[in-house]
Amino acid sequence: MHRVIILATALLCGQGASADVALNVGYLSVEAPRPPTLSNLDPVPANIGLAGAQTGLQDNLTTGKFLGHGYRLTEVEVAIGEDPLEPARDLLQSTSFILLDAPAETLTAIADLPEAQGAILFNTSAGELSLRDTECRANLLHSLPSDAMRTDALAQFFVQRRWDDLVMISGSYAQDQAYAEAMRRSLKKFGMALSEEKSWAFDADMRRTASQEIPLFTQDLGDYDALIVADELHDFGRYVLYNTWEARPVVGSEGLSAVTWSPVIEQWGAAQLQSRFSEAHARDMASQDYAAWAAMRSLGEAVTRTNSADPDTLRSYILSDSFELAGFKGRPLTYRAWNGQLRQPIAIAHPRALVAQAPLEGFLHQTNELDSLGLDRPESQCEAFQ
Amino acid sequence: MLPISKHVIAGGTAFLLCSTTTHAGEIWVTNEKDDTVSVISTETLEVIQTYETGERPRGITFSKDFSRVYICASDSDAVQVMDPNTGKILHDLPSGEDPEQFVLHPDDKHLYIANEDDAITTVVDVESRKVVAQIDVGVEPEGMAVSPDGKVAITTSETTNMAHWIDTATQQLFANTLVDSRPRHAEFVKDGSEMWVSSEIGGTITVFDTATQTEKAKISFEVQGVHPDRVQPVGFEFTEGDTHAFVALGPSNHLAVVNAATYEVEDYILVGRRVWHMAFNADRSQLFTTNGVSGDVTVVDVASRKALKSIKVGRFPWGAAFRP
After folding, report:
1. Reduced to 3 states, what is the DSSP secondary structure of residue B249?
2. Which of A37, A152, A188, A202 has the most C-beta neighbours closer than 10 Å?
3. Nearest Cβ partner of B138 from A62, A332, A368?
4. Do A255 and A137 have their domain in common?
């Protein structure tokens, strides 16, 4: 009967009352200006990321009620133009655990706050490689894959399919440039290079002229196996497909993409997470939602196994060999001890189906095949985790 | 289950093969992505019937007298009751949402059903066709077991990573025990003195002492040439007398043979791709495994621990059950 009493208490604490172990998790989103795109077909949901954190919270609460562990989510939004550091400081007064949706430079600024020392922050939104490299912070973990993990996944796919003659069109925004740079790095890593590159410089409305413009624009790329599009804001890329001069597949930001998460993932029990999510939020789960969910569940898993809400205890557990997160990707997810990046398989998908999942067969690694994606220990210049 | 004759024990593989002909029966396999069940003759090792079911059939079990077969039609949100002689659906049972797995209580009357999407275990009376109880469990309940004396039922929850212990007299939880990541299947063994739970992502089987609900042993697996992450224990079944467990290791495409006394792995057997669940024939001389990705069933000779044959069934075979 003792267990039943615990259960009752746990249920109460799920609603925020006192628990044996209680974790308040902050969610801080810093709104960034979004440049206009040619198409309005896919508006970015207002609760992107946050919805994933909420589903993760529900999962944690259900588990916690059997153990006397309570969880709470405190949400803070920073509007465009406002200083994010002040609200971050305030939030750090009430919790040491924060999921962050912010640009790279804001992430490091928050991580550098005196109030944030000893806290556990999760980057759920920024793919920049530098955050896992020279700009890493000991208190900043990354549940979102780096851009390099995604471009490495595609590069493995190119090798496997023998698509080694590649060309690229890149957009002009910083995110496009970062993606293009990550792609060049990945191609080099797997022994390939671009035979031709072009920048997207048009400002015409491609919904009317794509069929006329793109064939001409791609004509001088010559022959190639696949065309890479670096268009992370999804501005022009969607109009490239089926309009190229040569009949070739389009990959990268459009067409065949390497993504953290996609509605087409249904294997490995993922259908359950997808349906749980879409029932709660009336939309599909996006990559950023998945990253926030994974961060929330990482904390939950650590609390479950350590029976503690102490940041140091949780951080050591999360970075230890004992930690493993069942993340609906077919194998356990763990954190890289050298830069705090969540190791994970990367889906290679088009909007209608999963095509492959990286690491692909044959890409071996001396310790963990997942480390064939992104910055491996010897490559990373991150020193904060030593 | 029919007892093994002394002849069979004394004889070799050849004898075992002959013996199956005297105990002919059927293995029923649910095909998750075909909405059918395939019926395999244990005598000819061929599919002799295919019957249509509701959407996404997964868990499958027979009533004690084998006059009815219960099928979890997950996406139809129902447990279907079929006449196994005609393949006709007799009626549906209320099951709660998304029933995945279930277990029939020894009283032949109560089904304990895991409702994967709802974090609930539903108890249904198969005679009155009414829901008797709904029990809150962890996220994504899946594995279901009931003790031989019928007093304890188990639900494992995949994302909560627990075995939930249900007192069947009160339909209340009396214990919740943590296991490794993504528990998938549970079984009571050795007259109910032990309860085993497989953890797919954790890559282990946890053995509990039933009386105290404490961990007694943990079994790990290692398949040569396969990364440990891909060695994922899911379904398992025991040989006669509970001396050995045959454990499906998912995407490693192998079965493990575990000595149930020492908890050591004695053998690995290569079967089809993404091996899920399994069922024995009448005298437990042959084991039939469902291989989700390759869409077939592997027949394993239990004595020699060798795969004998692959039988093509429907798309994504999932559950398996035997009837004489």
Report:
1. coil
2. A152
3. A62
4. no
